[in-house]
C-alpha cells in the first residue's frame, strides 16, 4: 500500500530503476503509482527519459499523466510523438484537460492539431477556447451524463454503463428537456439505491443550484463551499445546460484566490505563475510600481518632518520615538485591515456591516491603545528617562495612533470595496503610509501644546 | 429553478410567508429550498419562529438543516424538543455531524443524551470525542461502504442499495480483510460500468493513498488537492481502516488555513471564531501581546537614534527622510516574506530551496533597489532640494535597505520553518522592525562617512 507520506521514497525507487534501465520493473512499479506522482517524477527528467517513461505507461495512466503535466513537460513528450500520435493523445484527454492544453499552445499549432479532429468537436473546441479566463465557462466540461426524463432506473444504469467511461463524473446525472433546458438532476446514489423499475422522474431533484457561464470563478468556488457539492451545472443566458464544473478544479481556485490576496496585500501585482517558476526580473517587475508608489506617498512624511524641524531641534529627544510610534501605528492598522479584508473575502462580513465593524475596531483600538500607552509611558519614564512631559506626549500619541490606525484599517478596505476596487489593496503598506502621516502630525501638535503650556 | 444568485430573494419570500403565518405555502417553498439556505433563514429568526419553521421541514431536510446550524441556533431548536426527540434527531445525523454537535456541548449534557443511545454506538461516540482537534481523525466518519473481496458487481450493487442510504458517500467503496486492514477500493463508476457478474476483486484498486488518524488536517487538505480525490480513507497505526474523510469538509480547511496565515502574518493570535462573532475585548486580547512585543522590539530604534543624535543635530535634513527609508525597507521586506511564506504554505517551495530563494530575492532586491534609489535621488535633488551629498546618502541607503529587506524577508520565514515554528510569524511587522534598525544604522554610518570625506 502506498501511503502519501512515502511518495518521495516511491520517486527514489522509480529513479533507481530508470538509472538501471530496468524497463520491466519500472513499468511494473509505474502501474502501482498514482498518475499525480508519475507526473512529478517525469517533470524531473530529461526530454529523452521523460519520453521513455511515458512510453512505458499503460494507456489510461498515460492520458491522466499527460493531463497533469506542466506545459514545458508536455512539450518534452510532444517532440517525441508525430502529429497523428499527438492529436490522438489529445483526443483521449478529458475535454477540459484538452482545452487547458490547447490554451497554452500557439494558435497555429492548435489549428494544425484540430485538422485531425472531427468537425463537430472542432467547433466545440473553438467555442471553449474563447471563454474568458476566470469565468465559470473556462472551468467547465461538456462531458457530463445526460438522462431522459422518461427513463427507468434500469435504463439509466444501462446508459451510464454505456457512456460513463468518457464522463468526468457519473455521480450526478442531469436531465434536460428537448431545448436543452435543465429540468433537474438525479444522483447515482439515488439511482442505485432504488428498484430497477423506478421512474427517473420520481427521483428528479428540481431545485438545482446552477452557475452562469459568465460568473467569476471566485463566486463559483463560494457556491461549492457553501453547498458542499462535488459538481455544479453551468447554464447559459437562455438557461440551457452547457457544461458542468467538478470540485477537483475548485480546490485550486480557493487556494489561488487566497494567494492572490496575499500578493496584493503585500503590495505586489498578483502573479500568474508560482513563485518558484518566476524569474527575478519578473518578480521585480511586479513589485517595483508598488514600492515606487508607496515610497512617493510616504515622502509626504518628509514634508511633515521638515515643517516641524524647529520643534525637533529644540527637543531632539522627541525624534527618537518617531519609528516606534509609526511602527506601532502601522502594526495596529495592519491587524485591523488584514482581518477585515479576510472577513470580506470569506463572506463573513459585507459592506452593510460597515458601521458595526468600525465601531468594533474603535473599541479594540481604545483597549489595545490604552495598554500600549501605559507600557510606552513607563518605558519612556524609567528606561529612556526622558522626563514626564515627553513620556506623556509619547503615551497620548500612542493611544491616538492606535485608535486611528484601527479605524482607518477598517474603513479603507470597505471603502475600496464600495468603489468596486479589490479591498486587498488597502492592506498594511498603504495603511502604514497613511497612519504614519497622521501620527506625526498629532505627535508634533501634542508636543507643541505641551511646550506652550509648560516650556520644557 | 433556483439560481444561486437568487437566494436572497428566496429568503425574502420565506420571510414574507412566515410573517403571513401561511404554513401551507411556507412548507411548500421550504421543500424547494436547499437546506443550506434554510439554515441561513433559520439563523435570522427568533427561537419561536425557528422552531416553527423547523417543525415544517420534511424529515430529511430537517436533519440536513440541523447539521448545518450554528451552535446557538441548535440551542434554539433544542429548547423546543424533549430529551427523547432530541436524541432521536442526533441519532439521525451523519456520524461526523453528530460528533461536531456533541463536541460543542457541555460533557454533562452529552452523557445525558448518550444514555438513550445503544452501547456500541455510545462507545464509538466517546472514542471520536477524544480525537485531537486538528487531526485527520477529527474530520473522519465511520459511515463508509465496505465491500467483501469475493463479491460480484451484482452483490456489490445489492449491498450498496441496502446500506447506501446511511453512508456519507457510496461513490468510493472500500474493501478490507478479516482484520479490517484495507485491501483497496472500488469506485461506483467502475461498478456500474461493468457487467453484473464481474468479480469485485478484478476491479479493485490496490495502491490506495491513505492518511493516518494523527495526520494534521492541513496535510490532509494537501493530499486532497494534490490527487483531486472526493474521499480519502483514514487508517490507524495498525493500518486498519477506521474511517473516511470527504471533500466537502476539506474545502473549509483550505480556506481556514489561509485565514490562519493571514491572521498570524498581521501579528494577531489566530482566532477560533469568525471575525463577526468575536467581541472587541476578545479581538483586543489576541492583538495586544503582539503589538506590545513589536513596540518593545522597535524601541531598539530609539536607542539607535539617540546614539546618532549628534549627526542629526548637525544635519537636521537627514531626519526628514527616516520614515521614507524605513517604510520602503518594510514594504520591500514584506513583499519578499509574504511571497515566500505563501509559497511554502502551498508547497511550491520547501526548505531545501533556501539558497535558490535567497539568491532570487537578492537579485530582485538589486533590480528594485536600483530603481527606487534612482527615483529617490531625483526627488531629493530636485524636489526637496537638499543638495548632492544628502541625496546620495539617501539613494545609497535606499539601495542597501531594499536589498537587505529582501534577503531578511526571504531568510527569516525559512529559518522559522527550520526551527519548527510557523513561518507566518516572520511576516511584515517583525521584518519591518528588524529592517528599520538595520536601515537606520546604515543610513547614519553612510552619512558619517560622507561627512568625514567632505564636511557638508
UniProtKB/TrEMBL annotation, chains A, B:
GO cellular component, as recorded: plasma membrane
Keywords: CBS domain, Cell membrane, Magnesium, Membrane, Metal-binding, Transmembrane, Transmembrane helix, Transport
Location in the cell: Cell membrane; Membrane
Membrane-spanning parts: 364-383, 390-412, 424-446
InterPro entries: CBS_dom (IPR000644), CBS_dom_sf (IPR046342), Mg_transptr_MgtE_intracell_dom (IPR006668), MgtE_N_sf (IPR038076), MgtE_transporter (IPR006669), SLC41_membr_dom (IPR006667), SLC41_membr_dom_sf (IPR036739)
SMART domains: CBS, MgtE_N
Lineage: superkingdom: Bacteria
GO MF assignments: magnesium ion transmembrane transporter activity; metal ion binding
SUPFAM superfamilies per record: CBS-domain pair (SSF54631), MgtE membrane domain-like (SSF161093), MgtE N-terminal domain-like (SSF158791)
CDD domains: CBS_pair_Mg_transporter
Protein name, as recorded: Magnesium transporter MgtE
Lineage: Bacteria, Bacillati, Bacillota, Tissierellia, Tissierellales
Gene giving rise to this polypeptide: mgtE
Amino acid at each position: 500500500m502506498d501511503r502519501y507520506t512515502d511518495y518521495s521514497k516511491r520517486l527514489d525507487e522509480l529513479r533507481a530503476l530508470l538509472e538501471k534501465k530496468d524497463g520491466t520493473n519500472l513499468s511494473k512499479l509505474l502501474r502501482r503509482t498514482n498518475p499525480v506522482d508519475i507526473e512529478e517524477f517525469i517533470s524531473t527528467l530529461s526530454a529523452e527519459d521523460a519520453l521513455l517513461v511515458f512510453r512505458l505507461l499503460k494507456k489510461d495512466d498515460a492520458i491522466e499523466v499527460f493531463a497533469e503535466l506542466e506545459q514545458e513537460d508536455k512539450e518534452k513528450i510532444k517532440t517525441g510523438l508525430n502529429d497523428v500520435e499527438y492529436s490522438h493523445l489529445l483526443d483521449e484527454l478529458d475535454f477540459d484537460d484538452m482545452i487547458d492544453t490547447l490554451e497554452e499552445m500557439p494558435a497555429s499549432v492548435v489549428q494544425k492539431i484540430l485538422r485531425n479532429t472531427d468537425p463537430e468537436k472542432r467547433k466545440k473546441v473553438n467555442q471553449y477556447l474563447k471563454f474568458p479566463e476566470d469565468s465559470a465557462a473556462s472551468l467547465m466540461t461538456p462531458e457530463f451524463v445526460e438522462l431522459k426524463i422518461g427513463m427507468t432506473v434500469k435504463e439509466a444504469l444501462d446508459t451510464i454503463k454505456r457512456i460513463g467511461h468518457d464522463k468526468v463524473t457519473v455521480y450526478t446525472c442531469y436531465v434536460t428537456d428537448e431545448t436543452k433546458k435543465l429540468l433537474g438532476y438525479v444522483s447515482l446514489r439515488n439511482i442505485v439505491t432504488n428498484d430497477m423499475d423506478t421512474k427517473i422522474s420520481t427521483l428528479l431533484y428540481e431545485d438545482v443550484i446552477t452557475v452562469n457561464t459568465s460568473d467569476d470563478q471566485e463566486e463559483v468556488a463560494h457556491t461549492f463551499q457553501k453547498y458542499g457539492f462535488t459538481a455544479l451545472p453551468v447554464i447559459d443566458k437562455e438557461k440551457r445546460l452547457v457544461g458542468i464544473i467538478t470540485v477537483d478544479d475548485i480546490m485550486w481556485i480557493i487556494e489561488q484566490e487566497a494567494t492572490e490576496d496575499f500578493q496584493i496585500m503585500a503590495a505586489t501585482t498578483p502573479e500568474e505563475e508560482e513563485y518558484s517558476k518566476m524569474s527575478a526580473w519578473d518578480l521585480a517587475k511586479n513589485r517595483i510600481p508598488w514600492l515606487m508608489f508607496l515610497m512617493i506617498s510616504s515622502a509626504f512624511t518628509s514634508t511633515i518632518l521638515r515643517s516641524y524641524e524647529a520643534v525637533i531641534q529644540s527637543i531632539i529627544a522627541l525624534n527618537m520615538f518617531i519609528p516606534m510610534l509609526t511602527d506601532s501605528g502601522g502594526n495596529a492598522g495592519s491587524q485591523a485591515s488584514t482581518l477585515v479584508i479576510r472577513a470580506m473575502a470569506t463572506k463573513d462580513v459585507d459592506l452593510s456591516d460597515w458601521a458595526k465593524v468600525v465601531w468594533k475596531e474603535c473599541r479594540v483600538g481604545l483597549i489595545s491603545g490604552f495598554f500600549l500607552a501605559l507600557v510606552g509611558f513607563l518605558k519612556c519614564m524609567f528606561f529612556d528617562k526622558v522626563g514626564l512631559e515627553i513620556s506623556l506626549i509619547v503615551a497620548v500619541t500612542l493611544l491616538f495612533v492606535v485608535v486611528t490606525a484601527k479605524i482607518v484599517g477598517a474603513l479603507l478596505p470597505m471603502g475600496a470595496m464600495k468603489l468596486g476596487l479589490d479591498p486587498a489593496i488597502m492592506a498594511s503598506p498603504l495603511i502604514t503610509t497613511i497612519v504614519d502621516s497622521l501620527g506625526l502630525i498629532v505627535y508634533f501638535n501634542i508636543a507643541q501644546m505641551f511646550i506652550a503650556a509648560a516650556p520644557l
